[in-house]
Write a structure and sequence with these properties.
This is Phage protein Gp138 N-terminal domain-containing protein. Helix content is 10%, strand content 37%. The chain has one helix and eleven strands. The longest helix has 15 residues. The chain starts with a helix and ends with a strand.
Amino acid sequence: MSNSSEFYSNFKNQILLSINTCMPCEVLSYNEGSRTAKIQPLFMVKEVNRSPEKLSVLEDVPVLFERVKINNGQEIKVTIPEGEHGGHSGGDGKHIHTKLKFEEEVENVPVLKSGDVVLVVFAQRSIDDAAEGKLVYPGASRLFDIHDAIIVGLL
Protein backbone atom coordinates (compact mmCIF):
# COMPACT_ATOMS: atom_id res chain seq x y z
CA MET A 1 0.00 0.00 0.00
CA SER A 2 1.35 3.41 -0.94
CA ASN A 3 1.90 6.10 1.66
CA SER A 4 -0.98 8.20 0.32
CA SER A 5 -3.37 5.19 0.32
CA GLU A 6 -2.37 4.36 3.89
CA PHE A 7 -2.81 8.00 4.92
CA TYR A 8 -6.36 8.15 3.50
CA SER A 9 -7.27 4.77 4.97
CA ASN A 10 -6.12 5.90 8.44
CA PHE A 11 -7.84 9.27 7.97
CA LYS A 12 -11.12 7.54 7.07
CA ASN A 13 -10.85 5.21 10.08
CA GLN A 14 -10.22 8.13 12.45
CA ILE A 15 -13.31 9.92 11.15
CA LEU A 16 -15.45 6.80 11.54
CA LEU A 17 -14.12 6.21 15.06
CA SER A 18 -15.21 9.72 16.06
CA ILE A 19 -18.86 9.02 15.15
CA ASN A 20 -20.84 7.80 18.15
CA THR A 21 -23.94 5.77 17.33
CA CYS A 22 -24.62 3.56 20.35
CA MET A 23 -22.70 1.74 23.06
CA PRO A 24 -23.21 -0.13 26.32
CA CYS A 25 -22.77 1.88 29.49
CA GLU A 26 -22.90 1.13 33.22
CA VAL A 27 -25.36 3.04 35.39
CA LEU A 28 -23.56 4.76 38.27
CA SER A 29 -26.65 6.48 39.67
CA TYR A 30 -30.24 7.19 38.61
CA ASN A 31 -32.64 10.02 39.48
CA GLU A 32 -36.14 8.64 38.97
CA GLY A 33 -37.74 12.07 39.46
CA SER A 34 -35.86 13.72 36.60
CA ARG A 35 -35.44 10.43 34.68
CA THR A 36 -31.73 11.07 34.24
CA ALA A 37 -28.71 8.94 35.00
CA LYS A 38 -25.00 9.20 35.55
CA ILE A 39 -23.29 6.57 33.36
CA GLN A 40 -19.86 5.19 32.52
CA PRO A 41 -19.36 4.25 28.85
CA LEU A 42 -17.96 0.71 28.64
CA PHE A 43 -16.00 1.18 25.43
CA MET A 44 -12.45 2.43 25.78
CA VAL A 45 -10.50 4.63 23.35
CA LYS A 46 -6.92 4.18 22.23
CA GLU A 47 -4.61 6.56 20.46
CA VAL A 48 -1.52 5.46 18.58
CA ASN A 49 1.38 4.53 20.90
CA ARG A 50 -0.81 4.97 24.00
CA SER A 51 -2.63 2.63 26.34
CA PRO A 52 -6.43 2.32 26.10
CA GLU A 53 -8.31 4.80 28.29
CA LYS A 54 -11.88 4.81 29.52
CA LEU A 55 -14.21 7.53 28.35
CA SER A 56 -15.41 10.23 30.73
CA VAL A 57 -18.46 9.69 32.93
CA LEU A 58 -21.63 11.21 31.43
CA GLU A 59 -24.03 13.02 33.76
CA ASP A 60 -27.71 13.97 33.44
CA VAL A 61 -28.31 11.52 30.60
CA PRO A 62 -32.05 11.37 29.80
CA VAL A 63 -33.75 7.96 30.06
CA LEU A 64 -36.36 6.94 27.50
CA PHE A 65 -39.80 6.13 28.92
CA GLU A 66 -43.21 5.30 27.48
CA ARG A 67 -46.71 6.67 27.87
CA VAL A 68 -49.21 3.95 27.00
CA LYS A 69 -52.89 3.12 26.99
CA ILE A 70 -53.71 -0.23 28.51
CA ASN A 71 -55.88 -2.24 26.12
CA ASN A 72 -56.79 1.03 24.39
CA GLY A 73 -59.24 1.94 27.17
CA GLN A 74 -61.22 -1.28 26.78
CA GLU A 75 -62.16 -3.59 29.65
CA ILE A 76 -59.72 -6.29 30.67
CA LYS A 77 -60.12 -9.40 32.81
CA VAL A 78 -57.93 -9.73 35.90
CA THR A 79 -57.73 -12.88 37.99
CA ILE A 80 -56.44 -12.76 41.57
CA PRO A 81 -55.45 -16.11 43.17
CA GLU A 82 -57.39 -17.23 46.26
CA GLY A 83 -55.91 -15.93 49.48
CA GLU A 84 -54.43 -12.80 47.88
CA HIS A 85 -57.75 -10.93 47.94
CA GLY A 86 -59.99 -10.36 50.95
CA GLY A 87 -63.25 -10.71 49.02
CA HIS A 88 -65.34 -13.55 47.68
CA SER A 89 -64.22 -16.07 45.10
CA GLY A 90 -65.69 -17.99 42.20
CA GLY A 91 -66.15 -21.75 42.14
CA ASP A 92 -62.55 -22.36 41.01
CA GLY A 93 -60.97 -20.63 44.02
CA LYS A 94 -60.11 -17.43 42.13
CA HIS A 95 -61.55 -13.96 42.53
CA ILE A 96 -62.43 -12.51 39.13
CA HIS A 97 -63.00 -8.88 38.18
CA THR A 98 -64.51 -8.78 34.72
CA LYS A 99 -64.97 -5.02 34.34
CA LEU A 100 -61.58 -3.51 35.14
CA LYS A 101 -60.89 -0.57 32.86
CA PHE A 102 -57.95 1.86 32.60
CA GLU A 103 -59.32 5.11 31.23
CA GLU A 104 -56.16 7.17 31.63
CA GLU A 105 -52.76 6.85 30.02
CA VAL A 106 -50.06 5.17 32.08
CA GLU A 107 -46.40 6.16 32.12
CA ASN A 108 -43.94 3.29 32.26
CA VAL A 109 -41.22 4.81 34.42
CA PRO A 110 -37.87 3.04 34.06
CA VAL A 111 -36.25 1.54 37.13
CA LEU A 112 -32.49 1.63 36.81
CA LYS A 113 -30.06 0.48 39.48
CA SER A 114 -26.40 1.20 40.02
CA GLY A 115 -24.45 -1.45 38.13
CA ASP A 116 -27.10 -2.01 35.43
CA VAL A 117 -25.80 -2.16 31.87
CA VAL A 118 -27.84 -0.03 29.47
CA LEU A 119 -27.81 0.66 25.75
CA VAL A 120 -27.17 4.31 24.97
CA VAL A 121 -27.73 6.01 21.62
CA PHE A 122 -26.23 9.32 20.55
CA ALA A 123 -28.34 11.91 18.76
CA GLN A 124 -27.31 13.08 15.34
CA ARG A 125 -27.15 16.69 16.56
CA SER A 126 -27.19 18.53 19.90
CA ILE A 127 -30.30 17.76 21.98
CA ASP A 128 -29.78 20.57 24.51
CA ASP A 129 -32.82 22.68 23.55
CA ALA A 130 -34.76 20.08 21.56
CA ALA A 131 -35.16 17.89 24.66
CA GLU A 132 -37.39 20.64 26.08
CA GLY A 133 -39.73 20.38 23.08
CA LYS A 134 -38.48 23.53 21.37
CA LEU A 135 -38.07 23.81 17.61
CA VAL A 136 -34.35 24.46 17.20
CA TYR A 137 -31.62 24.74 14.63
CA PRO A 138 -28.85 22.79 16.39
CA GLY A 139 -26.00 23.91 14.15
CA ALA A 140 -23.21 21.63 13.04
CA SER A 141 -20.74 21.98 15.89
CA ARG A 142 -21.86 18.73 17.60
CA LEU A 143 -22.50 15.71 15.41
CA PHE A 144 -23.01 12.25 16.97
CA ASP A 145 -21.38 13.65 20.10
CA ILE A 146 -21.04 11.52 23.22
CA HIS A 147 -22.67 14.34 25.24
CA ASP A 148 -25.94 13.88 23.32
CA ALA A 149 -26.59 10.49 24.88
CA ILE A 150 -30.03 8.96 25.51
CA ILE A 151 -30.56 5.73 27.46
CA VAL A 152 -32.97 3.50 25.53
CA GLY A 153 -33.08 0.47 27.82
CA LEU A 154 -31.39 -2.31 29.73
CA LEU A 155 -29.08 -4.79 28.05
